[in-house]
Write a structure and sequence with these properties.
- The chain is α+β, with helices and mostly antiparallel strands.
- Helix content is about 35%, strand content about 30%.
- It has helices at about 5-25, 30-35, 80-95, 110-115, and strands spanning about 45-50, 50-60, 65-70, 100-105, 120-125, 130-135.
- A six-stranded mixed beta sheet has the order 1-2-3-4-6-5, with helices on both faces.
- It starts with 6 loop residues before the first helix and ends with a strand.
């Protein structure tokens, strides 16, 4: 579980990862909003060889397990880290008989990973898609 101290690393990391999508969608980064919505109880820092490489945020909701965020530094992608984390969230959801739901921004190549892992589109918008696993 993350702590409030982690926001000092997380906020610039998250902004750097999301910058291309913000530019594409003509959005402006709002540090205050990030810190306002930061929830250390649902956020975990991802480490590899004792180095902070990303974050995952998972929320249990009444109707689903919501994968709110999964961000991994570029140089640590394509090593199975994200796949393993997503699979563990799917197992958690299965154990409580709920689907996993997430939102993926348009143009994010991670959508292919989600589809490969069994997610399906349940809603499509101009700037994002809502995906869900089957129960």
């Amino acid at each position: 579980m993350a702590t409030w101290d982690d926001v000092e690393w997380l906020e610039p990391f998250y902004e750097s990862v999301m910058r291309p999508y913000y530019v594409k969608l003509n959005l402006v980064w709002d540090s205050t909003k990030f810190r306002e919505y930061f929830n250390p109880r649902s956020t975990n820092i991802i480490q590899f060889d004792d180095v902070e490489i990303g974050m995952i945020r998972v929320e249990e909701r009444a109707d689903c397990i919501y994968l709110a965020d999964l961000q991994i530094q570029d140089k640590y992608r394509n090593r199975g880290i994200g796949t393993g984390l997503i699979e563990s969230v799917i197992r958690l959801a299965s154990s409580v008989n709920k689907p996993v739901r997430l939102r993926v921004l348009s143009g994010n190549p991670a959508k292919n990973l989600y589809l490969r892992l069994g997610f399906r589109e349940i809603e499509i918008f101009d700037d994002c898609d809502i995906l869900e696993t089957r129960q």
